Request: fold
Amino acid sequence: MYLARQLECFDHERNLPLYAILSHTRASSEVTMQQYREAVSSNDDRSDHVKTTQTYLKIEASCLQACADNLPYIWIDTSCIDKTSSAELSEAINSMFHHTAGAAPTIDDATLGKAGWFTSGWTLQELIAPRHMNFYDRNWICFETKGTLNYLIGANLRKASVAKRMSWAAQRVTTKVEDKAYSLFGIFEVNMPLPYCEGTKAFTRLQDEILKDNDDQSLFAWQPCAASELSSPRLTPTLPAEDGISVFAPHP
Reply:
């Protein structure tokens, strides 16, 4: 299969071609949509430098693997979302679970067991949504599949209580506080606007949205925990103020 290295837009979801998704932990300097377009269309020093980065090589390897699996397209969030457009970013985050569920075997370039992929908040839905998933090491050798790991294959998420779904995210971390809520939209079938930098308010808004369509009282089955009980400083919650108690949890 020919590797075109081109970005394409599909406006009609009913006519989507087969595609894979790269599920990965994000580096601090991932190749953006603009950088990728420039890199594949020019040969100046700047684009040549981008082509030598590990994040660009990750894209190349992902595309080659998709070709080897006879999949004509691959969706990679870091390069397929125009993050300079707040509207596109908001739509993409609200649709992330849907995009992932529609993919063919998903690929990941982490090392199982020690991989940050299993503690990232954003990759939880990427683990649950697709029916098929292959895990690759850094040399792109497939060593596990979702089937052999026995992870919620074809499970109906609505059969899991709100508390159970929250527990899946309890020990996962995100760089930004609000992403703790944003990364759970698909798992709870919620759509929300994204006023970034809202901090812990995002998780309160998420629970409020869950209540609108779900009367599962397990949402309230939580108790405050001390920072020392959490495995990472980034998991530290902001507890309710002493002068007011909230029925909503500050953290999954």
